[in-house]
């Protein structure tokens, strides 16, 4: 199907987002394009795209008419498609709408799951491992990209750990800066495990927050992101060196008042993935060089 036709309103429900969504999905689209163009060697036994918080597949910008492709359809309509797709959403309606949209134009193998991504991830990891175990001789392991884009803080660290068990699994992670900021004070002294503990994979974030929020409040997220990235390194992800400051590697999406909403964190076990990412984030959706 022609991509212009895909952008038409197909009559199925469409969710509206703020205009910063276009930047987020522009980074995803650019990364997929570089990744698939350079890495699509025949020797991988599979190239999988995993979208754990898929949504409905299309979206509008608030108060505008135009229809845009959401992350699942961006990944499906890329010039060199992946060989397998895995989509998850908690809302049955979203998954039904998404599967109609995806199946309308692409026969590539796709799996759709309704449920909590933090549980469904086990099935997806098992499925990719089974593809690898049954791969033809003389082929390599699978090459994978997971886009982890919840509305807020729903992504749990244990899910990231599970994905990292697959040897080649690049990650683009939604870091909800505003969601965290809103919740620090509610949860920093909580007795029970909180959504923030699950996001960071333990209570260590509390110590970091307490250390910086009074003396250097503007640096709290920098320290928390450094901590999150150090945990990614512990999982086997490449450490990014020569970074002047985190603003240059974790692009920030801002609302219309320029307040930060969320960032995208990137992880790859290979330096080359980071080289692609650095290229990707140089320009936002409007083609403007990022000033951060
Ligand atoms: C920001 S939207 C995703 C947008 C999508 N990436 C796109 O580009 O169109 C987040 C989605 O995650 C879903 N969601 C929220 N919590 C979830 C969970 N625990 N597991 C799976 N999906 C969840 C929501 O229903 C929503 O559709």
Looking at this protein, list some descriptive labels.
single chain; 292 residues; alpha/beta; Rossmann fold; 3-stranded mixed sheet; 40% helix; binds S-adenosylmethionine
What does this structure look like?
The chain is an alpha/beta fold and 292 residues long. The protein has a single domain, classed as Vaccinia Virus protein VP39 (Rossmann fold), CATH 3.40.50.150. It is 40% helix and 17% strand. It is built from 11 helices and 10 strands. The strands form 2 sheets. The chain has a 7-stranded mixed beta sheet with strand order 6-5-2-7-8-10-9, with helices on both faces. A 3-stranded mixed beta sheet has the order 1-3-4. The site of S-adenosylmethionine has 19 residues, from β5 and α5.
List the helices and strands and how they pair.
Layout: H1 3-6, E1 15-17, H2 21-39, E2 47-51, E3 58-61, E4 67-69, H3 71-76, E5 84-89, H4 92-103, E6 110-114, H5 117-133, E7 143-148, H6 157-163, E8 169-175, H7 177-187, H8 195-200, H9 204-212, H10 220-234, E9 252-254, E10 260-267, H11 271-280
Helix pairs in contact: 2-11, 5-6, 9-10
> What count of helical segments does DSSP give?
11
SS-derived structural category: alpha/beta
Terminal-residue CA separation: 37 Å
Task: Note the beta-strand portion.
Answer: 15-25%
- Supply the number of structural domains: 1
Mind summarizing the main beta sheet?
A: 7 strands, mixed
**DSSP summary, beta strand count:** 10
How much helix is in the residues?
25-40%
Overall mean pLDDT stands at: 92
Q: Which CATH class is shown? A: Alpha Beta
């Amino acid at each position: 199907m022609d991509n212009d036709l895909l952008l038409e309103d197909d009559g199925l429900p469409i969710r509206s987002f703020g205009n910063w969504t276009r930047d987020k999905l522009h980074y995803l689209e650019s990364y997929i394009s570089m990744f698939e163009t350079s890495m699509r060697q025949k020797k991988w036994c599979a190239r999988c795209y995993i979208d754990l918080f898929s949504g409905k597949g299309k979206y509008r910008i608030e108060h505008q008419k135009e229809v845009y492709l959401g992350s699942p359809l961006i990944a499906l309509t890329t010039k060199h498609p992946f060989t397998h797709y895995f989509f998850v959403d908690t809302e049955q309606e979203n998954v039904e709408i998404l599967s109609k949209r995806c199946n309308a134009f692409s026969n590539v193998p796709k799996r759709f799951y309704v449920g909590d991504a933090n549980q469904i991830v086990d099935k997806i990891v098992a499925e990719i491992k089974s593809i690898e175990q049954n791969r033809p001789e003389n082929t390599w392991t699978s090459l994978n990209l997971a886009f982890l884009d919840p509305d807020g803080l729903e992504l749990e660290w244990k899910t990231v750990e599970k994905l990292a068990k697959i040897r080649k699994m690049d990650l683009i992670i939604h870091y909800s800066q505003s969601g965290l900021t809103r919740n620090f004070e509610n949860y920093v002294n909580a007795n029970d495990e909180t959504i923030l503990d699950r996001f960071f994979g333990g209570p260590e974030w509390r110590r970091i927050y307490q250390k910086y929020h009074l003396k250097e409040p503007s640096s709290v997220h920098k320290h928390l992101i450094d901590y999150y990235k150090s945990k990614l390194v512990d999982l086997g992800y490449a450490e990014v060196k020569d970074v002047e400051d985190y603003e240059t590697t974790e692009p920030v999406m801002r609302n219309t008042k320029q307040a930060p909403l969320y960032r995208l964190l990137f992880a790859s076990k290979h330096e080359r993935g980071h080289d692609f990412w650095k290229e990707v984030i140089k320009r936002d959706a409007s083609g403007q060089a990022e000033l951060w």
